[in-house]
Amino acid sequence: MRLKLTFRMLADWHCGTGTGLPGHIDRLIVRDAEDLPFLPAKTVTGILRDSTERLAAGLDVDRQWITRLFGGQPAVDRTAGLPPMRAAVRFGPARYPDALRRALASLPVASADALREAATIVKPGIKIDDRSGRAEARHLRFDEMARTGDVLEAEVELDTRDWDDNQAGFAMALLTAGAQLVERIGGRRRRGGGRCRAGLTGGT
Prior knowledge:
Layout: E1 2-9, H1 41-58, H2 64-70, H3 74-77, E2 89-91, H4 98-105, H5 109-118, E3 120-125, E4 141-146, E5 151-158, H6 165-180, E6 196-202
Antiparallel strand pairs: 1-5, 1-6, 2-5, 3-4
Helix pairs in contact: 1-6
């Protein structure tokens, strides 16, 4: 079953590389082969697993459904030493829509580079002292952020070959509702970054 997961970003967002640009930016965002911001498949999978787990717990759904969908976690499932259960769902990276990337590729190099640069902004930030609640001295920092309003799309594959129609329908409903619970993604979430609306569509 082929599906599409869409993220509509309602705030500036940051999915970081863990590195910076000395003397300029403290935290850089990840970029794909086309030099555009994106969400790696691992990040997408993790946020969807978390939201679907919360949904299943709230509805008292058997945790085995989470394992069947997202695969086993030996440390959590207490099955250390055994091969983890294979995941039935696979998420690809979330990128800008194909049509936008094709349009960008058709532009002259200088124009395309300018638009890639405009896809991000640099925001100043500070470190807050946990005890006083005040800004700490000498802790001004700069983070690269992708812009609010971005739409990112990820391809999703759900393997239902071992399930009957009822099981496949339940799995689809669980994933769809789990996606709708996603409210934030990426870094800087505690400071308002990464607010989004997610939705799962398709079923072919």
